[in-house]
Amino acid sequence: MSTDPAARLRRLERGVRRRLDARAALRRVWTSGPAIVQIVAAVAAAYSVAHWGLGHAAPIMAVTVSITSLGLSRDARPRRVAMTVLGIVLGIALADGLTLLIGKGLWQLVVVLLVVFVVGRAVFPNPAFAVAAAVPSALVVLVPDPEGGPFTRSLDGLVGGVMALLITAAIPRDPRRAARRDGRALFSVLHESAATVADALGTADAAAAELALARLRRTQPLVDAWTVSLDSAVQVSRIAPLLRRHLPELLAQERVLGSADLTARHLRLLARRVEFLVRDGRPRPELGRLAGEIATAVRLLGDEVDDRELAGAARSLLEDVARRLDPVRLVPGAPVVDSAIVLLLRPLVIDLLVGTGARADDARALLPDS
User: Fold this and answer.
1) What is the pLDDT of residues 234-279, one digit of tens each?
2) What CATH number has the domain spanning 176-365?
3) Which 8-state DSSP code applies to residue 2?
4) How far is the CA of 252 from the CAs of 230, 262, 291, 329, 349, in angstroms?
5) What integer pLDDT is reported at residue 338 of this predicted model?
6) Cα 48 to Cα 59: distance, rounded to the nearest angstrom
7) Are 79 and 121 in contact (CB under 8 A)?
8) Domain range annotation of the chain
9) How far apart are CA 54 and CA 238, in angstroms?
10) What does pTM read for this prediction?
11) What is the pLDDT of residue 1?
12) Which of 128, 153, 158 lies closest to 141, judged by CA?
């Protein structure tokens, strides 16, 4: 074995990469586990109904539709599943009807796909639905007709879709975990950014303000991810008896999500203003401490997403901050640009208070006259 230190280092790096790859693979499998169980259960149910219930020898479309309509996507919204099912069954039915008229072959396959794609794009705005409809329609043209006739496959597709929807309600994936994870990711960035803005004000560090602004410019994908996962969790909880008790918690998260979205926008505006303001090199400790308190409130509000027992801590702190947001008293004699920072903090605090459950009018009433 080579004693070259560089060779040993390379072997060590390869070993570390293999362990990291193994952990990532296990994490992917663990994350997709509920979806895999759900898909397999839907396939078993659809096959059973089509094969033993309807007497179809090989219900390929029942199995195909069950797998395709559910998938391993994080978006498990029943509406998405239903639309995918509708697109697939429409493609199968169109292909069944067209093959009765024009037969099967290469040019017939081209015609069927053209019709299915055109109809799919006309009916559904999402391009994925047209593709979902085209795949089984091609199978209809290429695979020999079953014993029960061509429209047997359309019936199998409908069975597969119905089973997918029923399994979505009976064996839900519990998307709350994904919603919480996305909420934590967003609030982590918001808290770090708000804390960095506070540091920039307290130390006149323009680089810190630039860093906060760079972070905040990347928050929209985090907002979008939480929106999708939370909407999925709410929709599944509405139809799944096992998850319905969690619906109030998820609806509260929707309120917090709206507040977080507005908070990101306010913080971007604040960071841009602060980055310009602190170029004069003058520390502003009073404004820094105030922004630091708001950063703490952002962290507490994010903690409430995971633990509802913490509800109230952020609201109490924000109410205290709101009562002090008077530029005349907070920074007496300061230049107009400093007072403008205080005024920028007022709508930010109001939106955060609404996220804690306060009424917007009650939150505004806490602000001192300015």
Assistant:
1) 888 887 777 788 888 888 889 999 999 999 999 999 999 999 888 8
2) 1.20.58
3) -
4) 11, 16, 25, 35, 18
5) 82
6) 9
7) no
8) 5-170, 176-365
9) 31
10) 0.74
11) 47
12) 153
